[in-house]
Amino acid sequence: MRLIFSPQARADMQGIYGYIARDNENAAENLRARIESLAEKLRDQPYMGQKLPGSTRRRFPVAPYPYLIYYDVVGNTVRILRIRHAARYRAAFQEPARAFAG
């Protein structure tokens, strides 16, 4: 399977990294590495994430961190759509699919 990150997912990662790196750059690097590692696992096992009700989208936790990877599987491609803190409001997933083109 192919793996791509949407522009918004890349921006999410940069924002998360920047926020955490202000206090602890090592922690920010560890989180980024964890997200990238899980994205690779999703590429290999794309249906292991929880399917969102009424949608083709899925989510997968970035344990032990309080973040979620939102993604979908289109053909032979896993598209990472967003990376969000688990406590944040998820209204972004009501946006049109083209907002996640990447």
Would you mind describing this structure in some detail?
This protein has a single domain, classed as RelE-like (YaeB-like fold, 2-Layer Sandwich). The protein is built from two helices and five strands; from the N terminus they run E-H-H-E-E-E-E. Residues 95-102 have low confidence and may be disordered. Helix content is 34%, strand content 26%. It is α+β, with helices and mostly antiparallel strands and 102 residues long.
CATH topology: YaeB-like fold
Name the helicity range. 25-40%
Secondary-structure-derived class: alpha+beta
Strand content: 25-35%
Structurally, the number of domains stands at 1
β-strand number:
5
CATH class: Alpha Beta
Instruction: Please tell me the overall pLDDT.
Output: 89
The dominant shape is globular
Sequence of strands across the biggest β-sheet? 1-5-4-3-2
Reading the helices and strands in chain order gives EHHEEEE
As a whole number of angstroms, the C-alpha radius of gyration is: 13 Å
Low-confidence parts lasting 5 or more residues at pLDDT below 50?
95-102
- Any guess at the CATH architecture? 2-Layer Sandwich
The main sheet comes to:
5 strands, mixed
Question: What is the first-to-last residue Cα distance?
Answer: 16 Å
CATH superfamily: RelE-like
Discrete helix count: 2
Features:
102 residues, YaeB-like fold, five-stranded mixed β-sheet, 2 helices, globular, disordered C terminus
Topology record:
Elements: E1 2-5, H1 7-21, H2 25-44, E2 50-51, E3 58-61, E4 67-74, E5 77-85
Parallel strand pairs: 1-5
Antiparallel strand pairs: 2-3, 3-4, 4-5
